[in-house]
Amino acid sequence: MLASGETATADEATDGLKSLNDILANWSLENLTVWQGDNEQYALTPGTGSYTIGPAGAFNTTRPIRIGLSFVRVNGSDFPIDQWSLDEYNAVAVKNIGGIPERYVYINEYPLGQIILYPVPAAASTLFLNTDRVLTFPVTLATVLAFPPGYEKALRYTLATNLAPEYGVVPPPAVQAIATSSKADIKRSNKKRVVAA
Question: Could you tell me if 118 and 101 are in contact, meaning their C-beta atoms sit under 8 angstroms apart?
């Protein structure tokens, strides 16, 4: 919308920032647009099987979008834990059995998620969670974004296609094609190798 050298008005800059936030929020929901998860560890308390996760939660961190392969470490040995649905957990008659956790439920609530372990940890142990995070949300126009190669181009062209309708413009097919192909490039580079169990 602006020629080279022109400066956006405050309203235009606010619109652009809102659209960028929307793009980052939507991309955070897609497995392959998030380039890396975190492998974080949390101390488990014997007898406690439910923990909140998110800012100021029992596990004080960014609330994850998804949780992948995770494990519990007890006395130096690692035990993988499988993810259950809430329905599967609810079908268990006795939920307070103690032992080494074998399964977990992630209830993706907001602002805090909840993790329920089964069996309930019987001994001091550490939970290692492999989580997908939200992509960085800019707070101000001065925020510097740091992404791997390819993201800047994909964001720039996707932002152009998202903003065009607000200004009564149809983005040129070449811009739409670049937005689509650059996002596809990101997804291909983030594709995780599948290993047969």
Answer: yes
pTM (2 decimals)? 0.68
The 8-class DSSP code of residue 94 comes to -
Closest CA to 66 of 22, 36, 102: 36
Residue 156 has pLDDT above 80, yes or no: yes
Is the omega angle on the peptide bond into residue 119 within 30 degrees of 0, that is, cis?
Answer: yes
Measured between alpha carbons, how far is residue 163 from residues 5, 11, 70, 157 in Å? 19, 13, 39, 10
What is the rounded CA–CA span in Å between residue 121 and residue 118? 8
Q: 167, 1 in Cβ contact below 8 A?
A: yes
What's the maximum distance between 2 C-alpha atoms anywhere in the chain? 68
How many Å apart are CA 148 and CA 164, to the nearest integer?
A: 26
pLDDT band at 192 (very low <50, low <70, confident <90, very high): low
| Bridge partners of residue 104, in order along the sequence | 83, 117
Question: Do 86 and 107 form a contact (C-beta atoms < 8 A)?
Answer: yes
Give CA–CA dist 121/126, Å, rounded.
10
